[in-house]
Amino acid sequence: MMFLLLRSLPISAALGILFLSRWQFVAWRTFPLLYAASAGIFIASAALIGYKRLAWREWIKVIPPILTFLIAGGAALLVESGIQQTLFSLFVSGLAYLTLELLYLLGLEPAKYPVHGLSRLNLALIPLGMFFLAMTLSGLQAFIRFPFWTSPFFGLAYGAITFACTAHHTSDKEQDRRWVMMGLLVGAHAGIFAMLLPLDVVASGVVSALLFALPFRARRYAHDPKPPRKSAYIESSLFAACFFAVILFSRWA
Q1: pLDDT tens for each residue of 99-115
Q2: Rounded distance, CA 103 to CA 75, Å?
Q3: Within 10 A of 240 (CB to CB), how many other CB atoms are there?
Q4: Which of 66, 69, 85, 190 could form a disulfide with 25 if both were Cys (CB 3.0 to 4.6 A apart)?
Q5: Which one, of 57, 44, 186, lies nearest residue 129 by Cα?
Q6: Domain boundaries, the chain
Q7: Is the full-model pTM beyond 0.85?
């Protein structure tokens, strides 16, 4: 009975989150109660699946998906059209499903667990989480006058937490400390750019996401098997092109 409950929990929780997040846009006056309830379902399901089955090092890998889920709730305030609302609901429910499914495989069927599954998921989610965070801060700045330090502070906090949760499995303590310092530096720059650059909310989020994606991709070249040098030149050129294209061709706020 417990096995069936845990096996069906990822899809059941995802469907519940899909319903609640979609209903949140209908009953918008209740915000953020319904989204908080969906976050509670996500966290409780993760705790139920991993309880007494995962080591603390594995639990750390669940922090970035939960953090991205919570930050996305703030970005929900900026979602307007019906298609955007549907896509948002599909995103948060899909995020919950992928995380819980990987957590289930890791805890109960490790033979089927993809190698570094949660770690690879985090590499995609962390820049996306910063996209939502920068977009939310930039969007709310038009309605609420935050203190000047708000964006850099949230960038610092997000960078420190996410980089601390994604230390490489072969690194030592000194390398882990340097990696967290890198997260603080990147987060501060992302927060400052979100505060100073007069970009619209989407462009501000894209710039911040690119800043967070760069160090994670660059770290790949420090560990074997290393990608060819040609790939580094191509990826660096694409990053620079995307970064300056967003700044130069986006509509300025």
Answers
A1: 999 999 998 899 999 98
A2: 26
A3: 12
A4: 85
A5: 186
A6: 1-113, 118-253
A7: yes
